[in-house]
Specification:
Number of helices: 18
Helix content: 55-70%
Oligomer: single chain
Number of strands: 10
Distance between the termini: 73 Å
Largest sheet: 6 strands, mixed
Strand order of the largest sheet: 6-7-8-3-9-10
Structural class: alpha/beta
C-alpha cells in the first residue's frame, strides 16, 4: 500500500473509531459468536440425523434427545437472526452519524474553497463523485474487516472439522479461494475506474434531465421546442453510460458463472470422495450430511471472504477519492489568509497597484497591470464591454480571486494580511446573478447579516427605503411570506421586485464598501439607471463601485474607470472622457440610441 493510501486509510479508521467506538467493540464480540454458529449448526444437524437413525434402528429408543437438539437448533437460529437484525439497526445509526460528519465536511470544503475552483470542471466531477452515501462508503471497509474476522473463525472451525475426517476434504474445499479473490478484485477495480471515467457524461445526463424537469427552464423548452432535442441528447448519454455498465456487469457475471462451475465440480468431487469413505470407515449418515454441509459451508465462507477482501480494496479507492477531495489544494493558487482587522473607518481608501490576474493553468492575463485609487466615500463606475475584466477585477477586490501579481490595499494594509471574515464583513455586493432564496421575505433580507437577523426594526427600515415594503405589505403574512415555489407554495415576484429584495439585503448588511456587479443587466437601460440612482441615494457616504457595460448609468458616478481587454484604458469624469473621444466616447455613442 502506498504512503498516500495508508494515510487515507488511517484517516478513515480514525474517523470511524471516533464516531462508533462502542459499535466496533460490540461488532467484534458479536462476530466471534456468529463465526462459531455455522460449525455448531453442522454438529447439531449431524447429531440430529444420527439420533433419528438410531431411533428408526431401535424403536425402543425415545425421541427426547432429538427434540432437545431440535429446540437447541431453533434457539440458535433465532439468536443468530435476532443479533443480525439488531446489528443492522446499530449499523444504521453509525452510518447516519458518519453521513452527517462527512457531508458536513464535504459541504464545508465546497463552500470554503477559492471561487476559481468552480471554474475547473474536474473539481465539479470530483465533487459529484464523493457526494451521497458517504457514511455507508466509510463503514463498508470497516464492516468488511469485521466480517473477514467472522469468516476466518468460521473457516478455521470448518477446516478443523474436515481435517479430522480427511485432509483432502479440507484442501479441496479451500482451493477455490484464489480464483474468487482474483476475479472479485479485478472487476471491483474496473467498476471504480469506469465510474471515474464516466463522471463527466453522467453529470451531463443529469444536467439535461434537470433541464427537462426544472421549473426555471420550462418556459424556454416549450417556446423554443427544445423537448425532443434535449431528450435525444439525454437518451444518447443515458444509453451509452448504461451500455458500458451493462458490458462490465455481463463480463463480471460470466466470470462468476465460471467460479460457480468450478465450485460445483469441487463439491461433486468431495461428495464422491466422501461416499468412498463411507465404505471404508465407520461414518454414519449424519456424519456424511454434516461433512457435506461443512464442505459447502467452507466454500461459501471462502467465496464470501474473497468478496469481502476484494471489496475492502475497492472501497479504499472510494475512501481515497473522498479524502483527496477534502484535502485538495491547488498550491499554484493558494490564497494567503491574514490576521489583521479591516480598517474600522477608511481614511486613505482602496488602492490597486499593478494588479494582474491569470486563471490557474492558463497563460493569458485576464487583468494586466491595473492601477488606481478609490477615495473613501467616492462613487466609482467601472465600465467596458462584456469580457473586458470588470467582474474579475471586483472578485479580486473581494478576495475571491488571489491576484497573480501586484497588490490590493485598504488604507495601505494588503488584502493578503486582512482576515477573510473581516474583509467579507466590510464588503457588500449585489451580483448580476444574485440569489433568490425560496425562503421568507424576512430571511431573504436578513440572511446577509445573521447577527442582526432578529432586528425587525432595521429590516423594516431598509425594506421601506428600497420599496420592498410597498408590495410586501399587501401579503397576508407580510414579512413571513415565502418567496418562490421551488420548495414551498410561495409568492412569485417580478424581476424588479426581486431587485428591490437584493437591494434591501445589501443595505441590511451595511458594509463600508458597496459593489453593484451588473445586478440590473436583465432590466432595460432606463430601468437600470433608475436603480442606480436609487442606490446612489441609499448608499450615501459609502464607498460605492458600480459595474456596468452601459455607459449612461456611469454618469451618476464621481469617476469612471474604463476597462478593455483586461487593462484600465481610461479614467475620469463623463465630460472629460467624452472630450477625449476614445474608448468611453465610442461606447457611449454606440449606446446613445437606447436613451433617445
Amino acid at each position: 500500500m502506498k504512503v498516500t493510501q495508508f494515510h487515507f486509510v488511517k484517516k478513515a479508521l480514525t474517523l470511524v473509531w471516533e464516531t462508533g467506538k462502542s459499535w466496533i467493540i460490540v461488532s467484534f464480540l458479536v462476530r466471534i459468536v456468529l463465526g462459531l454458529i455455522p460449525i455448531v449448526s453442522v454438529l447439531l444437524i449431524q447429531n440430529i440425523i444420527n439420533e433419528i437413525t438410531l431411533y428408526f434402528d431401535n424403536e425402543s429408543k425415545g425421541l427426547r434427545s432429538v427434540i432437545w437438539l431440535l429446540l437447541l437448533q431453533f434457539g440458535m437460529l433465532f439468536f443468530q437472526s435476532a443479533v443480525i437484525n439488531l446489528m443492522k439497526i446499530f449499523d444504521l445509526k453509525i452510518e447516519q452519524k458518519l453521513d452527517y460528519k462527512l457531508e458536513k465536511q464535504i459541504s464545508n470544503k465546497a463552500a470554503s474553497v477559492p471561487l476559481y475552483y468552480y471554474d475547473n470542471t474536474e473539481f465539479h466531477h470530483h465533487h459529484d463523485r464523493v457526494m451521497g452515501n458517504s457514511g455507508e462508503r466509510m463503514m463498508s471497509p470497516i464492516r468488511a474487516v469485521l466480517d473477514i474476522g467472522q469468516n476466518v473463525i468460521t473457516l478455521i472451525s470448518f477446516f478443523v472439522f474436515l481435517i479430522q475426517v480427511h485432509w483432502l476434504l479440507a484442501f479441496t474445499s479451500t482451493l477455490m479461494a484464489i480464483p474468487v479473490l482474483v476475479v472479485q478484485g479485478k472487476y471491483g477495480n474496473k467498476q471504480f475506474r469506469l465510474l471515474r471515467y464516466q463522471t463527466p457524461s453522467i453529470r451531463e445526463a443529469h444536467y439535461l434531465s434537470a433541464l427537462l424537469n426544472d421549473r426555471e427552464s420550462a418556459k424556454e423548452i416549450r417556446l423554443f421546442n427544445l423537448k425532443n432535442h434535449l431528450l435525444d441528447r439525454w437518451s444518447r448519454l443515458f444509453i451509452e453510460n448504461n451500455k458500458k455498465i451493462f458490458d462490465l456487469s455481463k463480463r463480471r457475471e460470466l466470470a462468476h458463472l465460471g467460479l460457480q462451475l468450478f465450485t460445483a465440480i469441487i463439491y461433486v468431487f468431495n461428495a464422491f470422495f466422501l461416499i468412498r469413505l463411507l465404505k471404508t470407515t465407520t461414518l454414519k449418515i449424519g456424519d456424511f450430511v454434516g461433512v457435506m454441509q461443512a464442505v459447502q459451508g467452507t466454500q461459501n465462507t471462502i467465496t464470501d471472504l474473497s468478496i469481502k477482501v476484494a471489496n475492502i480494496f475497492n472501497e479504499f479507492l472510494n475512501i481515497q477519492d473522498l479524502f483527496s477531495f477534502l484535502e485538495f489544494e491547488d498550491p499554484s493558487m493558494k490564497i494567503a489568509r491574514g490576521e489583521k482587522d479591516f480598517p474600522s473607518s477608511m481614511g486613505q481608501g482602496i488602492e490597486f497597484k499593478n494588479v494582474s490576474f491569470t486563471y490557474p493553468h492558463s497563460k493569458r492575463d485576464v487583468l494586466s497591470n491595473v492601477s488606481f485609487i478609490i477615495r473613501p466615500g467616492e462613487k466609482i463606475a467601472i465600465v467596458g464591454e462584456n469580457g473586458s475584466g470588470k467582474t474579475t477585477l471586483v472578485k479580486c477586490l473581494m478576495g475571491l480571486y488571489p491576484v497573480s501579481r501586484g497588490g490590493i490595499f485598504f488604507d495601505s494594509v494588503s488584502i493578503k494580511d486582512i482576515k477573510q471574515e473581516e474583509l467579507f464583513k466590510n464588503l457588500t455586493v449585489i451580483f448580476q446573478d444574485f440569489m433568490k432564496y425560496n425562503m421568507s421575505v424576512k430571511d431573504n433580507i436578513t440572511i446577509s447579516l445573521q447577527e442582526d437577523a432578529k432586528n425587525e426594526l432595521k429590516m423594516i427600515d431598509v425594506a421601506k427605503q428600497t420599496g420592498v415594503d410597498s408590495f410586501v405589505s399587501r401579503y397576508e403574512r407580510r414579512y413571513e411570506t415565502i418567496l418562490g415555489k421551488i420548495l414551498f407554495e410561495g409568492e412569485d415576484l417580478s424581476g424588479g421586485q426581486w431587485q428591490k429584495i437584493a437591494l434591501a439585503r445589501a443595505l441590511f448588511k451595511n458594509g463600508q464598501i458597496f459593489v453593484l456587479d451588473e445586478p440590473t443587466a436583465a432590466l432595460d437601460p432606463k430601468a437600470e439607471l433608475e436603480v442606480f440612482k436609487q442606490f446612489e441615494v441609499l448608499s450615501k457616504q459609502k464607498t460605492t463601485i458600480y459595474i456596468s457595460h452601459r455607459m449612461a448609468s456611469a454618469r451618476i458616478a464621481d469617476r469612471i474607470l474604463v476597462m478593455k481587454n483586461g487593462e484600465l484604458v481610461e479614467m475620469g469624469h463623463h465630460d472629460e472622457l467624452m472630450g477625449n473621444d476614445s474608448e468611453y466616447a465610442r461606447l457611449f455613442n454606440m449606446q446613445a440610441k437606447w436613451y433617445a
